[in-house]
Design a protein that fits this description.
mainly alpha, elongated, single chain, Four Helix Bundle (Hemerythrin (Met), subunit A)
């Protein structure tokens, strides 16, 4: 995924195949948000801006952009294992039990990239908030674009985690994932406030 063209990825995304799917696109939303924040930081490197904040945001955003692409790749691989588990035979009681266990394990594994994506979205929201107050005002609309992408990433992670919960047999893991999914509401609220603040500023 990292080295393929956008056209190639979109072709695979549109194909009648379960992976890549929504989870990978959520991670790519996060990657784009991180890249946008890094770009705004690089436009905010003059002596007029807070070099400590700008430098910290730039470094963190560069790292998160790379991390998010890795999550997109991990999500595609993990969901591929879910597909394989569902294709296991179920003709006998033993096969049904083995298939059920394999599906539960694969679904649990598939939630990990999405849980990590939620964590990335939370971090990105914080970076966007920090950057807005010190950013070059000529490019703050790109922070709004990043905020919208962060919100999308969080919602996608939330929905994908919730979609897998019913198949996860580990109650402790299911409870942990439920709490992670609930973080999306806070992220979307923060992203919405950022967009509102930026729209208000640029309308003046």
């Amino acid at each position: 995924m990292r080295d393929e063209t956008i056209a190639s990825f979109l072709t695979r995304l549109a194909a009648r195949s379960a992976a890549p799917g929504g989870g990978a696109t959520g991670a790519l939303h996060a990657a784009q948000a991180a890249a946008l924040l890094a770009m705004v930081a690089r436009f905010s490197d003059s002596p007029r801006h807070d070099s400590e904040v700008v430098g910290r945001v730039r470094a963190a955003a560069d790292g998160l952009a790379d991390e998010a692409v890795e999550l997109a790749e991990a999500d595609e691989a993990a969901f591929g294992r879910v597909v394989v588990a569902y294709q296991l035979p179920k003709d006998t009681a033993e096969q049904k039990a083995a298939r059920s266990a394999a599906i539960a394990g694969a679904l649990a594994g598939a939630t990990r990239p999405q849980a990590d994506l939620m964590a990335a979205a939370v971090r990105l929201a914080g970076l966007a908030e920090d950057l807005l107050s010190v950013a070059n005002r000529n490019v703050i609309s790109d922070i709004a674009a990043a905020a919208a992408a962060i919100s999308a990433a969080a919602v996608i992670a939330q929905v994908n985690i919730e979609a897998n919960l019913s198949g996860i047999k580990d109650e402790a893991l299911a409870a942990e994932l439920t709490q992670i999914a609930e973080l999306a509401d806070g992220v979307t609220d923060r992203a919405g406030r950022l967009v509102d603040a930026i729209r208000e500023e640029i309308s003046r």
